[in-house]
Design a protein that fits this description.
The chain is α/β, with parallel strands linked by helices. The chain has 16 helices and 27 strands.
Length: 561
């Protein structure tokens, strides 16, 4: 008997973690010969990226399938075209990257055909899935007896109809898309196994895999709400199919739903990576930009820089790329080193008066003699997407609506994404800069977050280490490499590392390595959770800048009505 395991729609990193943890034992215990997994929501809940795909394949998945969300990440198009173990919907127009079906060798050597199809009822426009299925079978009939279909469709009627259409010609038709496992598994008279929907793999304390609180707010208010994958009650949904390899006829079909009892490793802090929540923020922004563009509003961000600081050039490139990804236009204003403050202020004021410009960002530091404070104050508060203007600083301190600096806002979003308890807990922020420390302390102590906050700094003296050890959430933003060590951290605390520094490293390629303000190796043995450097706070900063720019464009559009 050939045993095929189909893993239902994987939702974000919680779902990928479940697959990593459970699949090796499942393969051994159930004698699995081939694993097929729908990964279209495996990257932040929307789309399939190279990293998410590699994660699932490394966990033991043999073939990835997709659906209507497979194309949600523009940066994934190259990966979708080149990954031979990925099968995308076959009934899409010519020119779509990737393959609609393929033949894969099972562990016992049996060739297995995998076909992915997209439904047409209440879904995006696609060719007829029934005729596409016929074409696939015609192509595969000389290559394999066993053929499994992943039919990603909205309605039960269309799924059941396809199963009848393929009965006796396909080994299995597995429905996906609704994320709710159905109890209608059966084998049709001709020997085709069928289930209307395989379910999902991820957090079940959710609304079909996404954070239930945000989903409820959307239903209750009808307002846009950013959705991110849920982490509570992680489970794996799957379908186990037994097939006669000689005839391709299904002999058994069984639903699986397995809870993942997560056990934290001793002395290994959970890594709070920023890419997934950052991607979720950008995805939501892209939807809002599409609505603005349909209304004739093209969001535009002006990026102003003075001089050729190498680090600034890297940051500007990342911000430009993130804006382009969601549909925000970027206007670069690059001034040469040595330009005086008055010239920079005049250029910024000109951008502020331009109705086409919705957001202005001044990349710091500015090369001398330009004065950063005067330049930042020249930005109209309504276009200050970095949140550095005194008006926005004052509004934040008073709890009034305004633009919040991207890094503090990103840190809060990161903590919420990973469901770190905040209300009533003690936060210690190390560093009092106007860019991170002060606004973050204000944000965390606001009524919306309700943390008790201590702001430590260089003048705190020897007491600083003791203050840090009292923190449930410790934020290191002091600008000195690897200053915070294990003896600064209360066991089990969440540590957020804002710093990024390039330091010498003889054993590394190029002779350097990137570190933060935290000595990660020692702190990871004490902390309960830690943001990595790079890949922690950095992606969130860029994502929140994009979000602030979209907000500025929406406010500008509303003001003109």
């Amino acid at each position: 008997m050939l045993n095929l395991l189909f893993i239902a729609d994987v939702i974000g990193s919680p779902g990928r973690e479940v697959v990593r943890s459970l699949l090796p034992d499942l393969r051994r215990r159930l004698g699995i010969h081939l694993v097929v997994c729908n990964g279209e929501n495996s990257a932040g809940g929307f789309g399939l990226t190279r990293d998410a795909g590699h994660d699932l394949l490394a966990a033991g998945v043999d073939v990835l399938t997709g659906g209507n969300h497979l194309w949600d990440r523009k940066e994934s198009l190259g990966y979708l075209a080149e990954e031979p173990r990925l099968v995308r919907p076959a009934n899409l127009p010519p020119g779509v990257p990737g393959q609609g079906w393929g033949v894969f060798k099972a562990a016992d050597g049996t060739p297995v055909g995998i076909v992915n199809l997209l439904g047409r009822v209440f879904m995006k426009e696609a060719d007829c899935p029934f005729r596409a299925a016929d074409r696939a079978l015609e192509e595969l009939k000389q290559r394999c007896k066993v053929v499994l279909f992943d039919f990603h469709a909205e309605t039960t009627a269309e799924k059941i109809a396809l199963a009848w259409h393929l009965d006796g010609r396909a080994s299995a038709v597995i429905g996906t898309h609704t994320h709710v496992q159905t109890a209608d598994e059966r084998i049709f008279p001709g020997g085709t196994a069928f289930v209307c929907d395989a379910g999902m793999t991820g957090g079940f304390e959710s609304v079909i895999g996404m954070d239930r609180h945000a989903a409820l707010r959307r239903f209750l208010t009808l307002m846009p709400e950013r959705l991110s994958p849920a982490t509570g009650d992680p489970r794996l949904d799957g379908i186990l199919i037994g097939v006669d390899p000689a005839s391709g006829t299904a002999r058994s079909i069984r639903r699986l739903e397995i809870r993942h009892q997560k056990v934290e490793a001793q002395g290994a802090a959970r890594l709070l990576k920023g890419e997934e929540p950052a991607t979720t923020v950008r995805y939501a922004a892209r939807g809002e930009v599409a609505i603005l563009r349909e209304a004739g509003v093209v969001p535009l961000l002006a990026l102003v820089s003075v001089g050729e600081n190498p680090a600034s050039q890297i940051y500007l490139k990342r911000k430009s790329e993130a804006c382009a990804e969601v549909g925000i236009e970027v206007r670069r204003v690059a001034l040469s080193e040595g330009v005086d403050t008055r010239t920079v202020v005049e250029r910024v004021r000109g951008l502020g008066e331009d109705p086409e410009v919705h957001g202005i960002l001044v990349q710091l530091p500015l090369a001398a003699p330009a004065d950063a404070r005067a330049v930042l104050e020249a930005i109209p508060p309504s276009k200050d997407v970095d949140g550095f203007h005194p008006v926005n600083v004052g509004r934040l301190s008073l709890g009034l609506p305004g633009f919040v600096p991207a890094t503090p806002l990103g840190i809060l979003e990161l903590l919420r994404h990973y469901e770190v308890p905040l209300a009533g807990r003690h936060a210690v922020v190390l560093g009092r800069s106007d860019i991170v420390g002060r606004p973050l302390a204000t944000l965390l102590s606001s009524r919306a977050v309700n943390m008790t906050v201590t702001l430590g700094h260089s003048a705190s003296g020897p007491a600083l280490t003791e203050l840090a050890r009292q923190a449930d959430v410790l934020v290191a933003a002091i600008g000195k490499p690897e200053t915070v060590t294990a003896d600064w951290v209360k066991p089990g605390a969440t540590v957020v590392d804002v710093g990024i520094h390039r330091v010498p490293a003889e054993n590394r390629r190029g002779g350097t390595r990137l570190v933060g303000d935290v000595e990660a190796e020692s702190v990871a043995r004490v902390a309960g959770a830690l943001t990595p450097v790079p890949g922690g706070v950095g992606p969130m900063t860029v994502a929140m800048l994009v979000s602030n720019t979209v907000r500025a464009a929406k406010q500008s559009a509303a003001a003109r009505v």
